Amino acid sequence: MDQGNYSRVAEFVLSGLSSSWELQYFFFVLFNFLYITIVLGNLLIVLTVISDPALHTPMYIMLSNLSVLDVFLATYATPKMIHDFLHESKTISFEGCMAQIFLLHVFAGGEMVLLVAMAYDRYVAICKPLHYTTIMSLCRCTGLVVGSWVIGIMHSLSQLAFIINLPFCGPNIVDSYYCDLTLVIKLACTDTYVPEVLMLLDSGLMGVTSFLLLLISYTIILITVQHHSSVGIAKACSILTAHITVVTLFFGPCIFIYAWPFSSFPVNKVLSVFSTVFTPILNPIIYTLRNKEVKSAMHKLKTRYVSSRLLSQLSLTR
Questions:
Q1: Is 97 within 8 Å of 12 (Cβ atoms)?
Q2: What job does the chain carry out (predicted)?
Q3: Which residues of 30-55 are buried (b: 16+ CB within 10 A; e: fewer)?
Q4: What is the helix (H) or strand (E) element at residue 178, kind and residue range?
Q5: Which tens digit of pLDDT belongs to each residue from 98-145?
Q6: Is the Cα dihedral 174, 175, 179, 183 positive or negative?
Q7: Cα 232 from Cα 252, distance rounded (Å)
Q8: How confident is the model over 292-310, as pLDDT tens digits?
Q9: Which of 163, 169, 168, 165 lies closest to 182 in space, CA to CA?
Q10: DSSP annotation of 277
Q11: Alpha helices, H only, the chain
């Protein structure tokens, strides 16, 4: 259908999480607290890894990058959602909507690939410990981290290509608190069957491939640790539990949402909030509570900070 016959919509209207002002005031306070916690918690992990040379290993470099992705994943839509809680008009420009779609798929796609890279790192560490330093060199670790960002960007560009040139001429209400591609594409003034199928195949291919690689990696690891000592099994299981928990929290909502990609269910909003707010806040908790090295490094960082403050106060009193 010829786009020239239509005037493109200038903005979209977001339905938000609730129409109740009482709930919106509550959500404003709640999500402000959660967002600040996400940013501070994940940045603390990044700062801890950077400040402690003992954590300059592939596993912790990838963990710090996961924290960076989590901050970005929480930031692409959450501040806008918090702002909208205090405003009756919840609108977003066409360009802003496309930007949200692009950023969501960059960060979610990048995190998907990074989780696979982290599983590969644990596979090499547990199944091939004697060759770990050779296989997981700094160069390869850097390549895996950069590769996760590159694949995320390429995946996002392919998703955006399905929607950016579609004609949007009338309906502009998105039943969510952000521009969800599966909901926005239905507002186009043309038949979107082919773009919907291609979009689903693109996302499905990446999601299913990542999930299968994770499943294979963790299955091999679990089989391998059965032949190790009880101490080795305990340590490996502790690390694996953290990784598998994060993978489940990340892929669980995605699988449900994309099982019915072009249908709008009330639970979809809950799952979207879980993916973009609660998963980024749970990741640092899961990794730090089960990781002695990170907790020890955080304690050193705190001690160093307190000592520097005391020294600065002493110098001022002289």
A1: yes
A2: Putative odorant or sperm cell receptor.
A3: ebeebbebbbebbebbbebbeebeeb
A4: none
A5: 999 999 999 999 999 999 999 899 889 888 888 999 999 989 999 999
A6: negative
A7: 29
A8: 888 888 888 888 877 777 7
A9: 163
A10: I
A11: 21-51, 58-75, 78-84, 94-127, 132-135, 138-161, 181-184, 193-225, 230-259, 266-273, 279-289, 292-317
